[in-house]
Amino acid sequence: MDLSIFRFHISSLVSKCLLLLLMALIIRTLLLPNSFSLVSKNYEFGLLKSDVRNVKLKFLEVPQIVWGFNNQKIAFARACLTARTLNRSLLMPSLSASLFYKEIDQLQPISFHKIFQFEKFNSLCHGFVQLSRYSDLTNQSSIINLHKGSGRKWTLERDLDQLKEFSKQDYDVYETIRILGKNPFLWHDHWPVSDYAKVFECLVLVDEISKEADEVVSKIKHFGSVVSKIKHFGSDKNGVSLDQTPYVAIHMRIEKDWMIHCKKLEQRSNVSDICSSREEIMTRVANLRTLKSSTILYLAVVNKLLEDNLILIGWKEGMHPVDKKRLGVVGYRL
């Protein structure tokens, strides 16, 4: 038997088999595109990351996000990153329009799109995380509950194990994973700061609130121009223009709700450097080398949660503090 003919026959047979397999794969891809949308998971430095393909097909629902505005932003970012980890789209959560310490039942819910631009967020965060509306749900009964733990017994490892478990394909049959539990801003972190920054960059305030922010800035600059004119009264200088008025915003965490919280943290951690007094903050600000000799200090505090009304007193010479009450913007949402 001619061996060359035998080798040609074998080669031809293999080629035909490969061609048939390729055609079958192409047909399967066209008819069943979702069968190839496998979620890839990579574990880098012990942290869970996930692909965001098919993010619109499944959803994550979280409880109302509470406490102060900054805490709500952090909780929202954590909710987004949790959804991304589970390869799901986050259902637009409710934020809180009022601030009550402990009295959670008195919190007034407000929809996300009343504070931030929904479409803008999805546009800026496209391919990273995604928000969805409840109207996007197709089967509101296809829900599984995920009970997130809290307290010191709920460790970083247990939280990560839970995320890994709910990332398995077994849970893909459920359209929605609903997280149950309180204080979502206390969830343990599994994501780098850069991921948080990406979410924050996608948060754009609605026009109404942006206008309030512009008005606050305008009032701060006007206050600075008045201070400048008083300072240079009787001299050849006429003060500085509004656009040249230097100012900085200082988030002073000295309200009673934070002081209660941070003191408990100090006791549990056996440290004494978490809480900062009004005097300590004044000293740190005074030592900032980047501040000019004459600067307006906008003190961002919740006046009604202060233990005293001395925040405008005792600042370094050349620093001119002002708060919401003095600016006349107490009713503003910023």
UniProtKB/TrEMBL annotation:
<keyword id="KW-0808">Transferase</keyword>
<dbReference type="GO" id="GO:0009875">
    <property type="term" value="P:pollen-pistil interaction"/>
</dbReference>
<keyword id="KW-0119">Carbohydrate metabolism</keyword>
<keyword id="KW-0294">Fucose metabolism</keyword>
<dbReference type="GO" id="GO:0006004">
    <property type="term" value="P:fucose metabolic process"/>
</dbReference>
<dbReference type="InterPro" id="IPR019378">
    <property type="entry name" value="GDP-Fuc_O-FucTrfase"/>
</dbReference>
<keyword id="KW-0328">Glycosyltransferase</keyword>
<dbReference type="GO" id="GO:0016757">
    <property type="term" value="F:glycosyltransferase activity"/>
</dbReference>
<dbReference type="Pfam" id="PF10250">
    <property type="entry name" value="O-FucT"/>
</dbReference>
<protein>
    <recommendedName>
        <fullName>O-fucosyltransferase family protein</fullName>
    </recommendedName>
</protein>
<dbReference type="InterPro" id="IPR044982">
    <property type="entry name" value="AtOFT1-like"/>
</dbReference>
<comment type="similarity">
    <text>Belongs to the glycosyltransferase GT106 family.</text>
</comment>
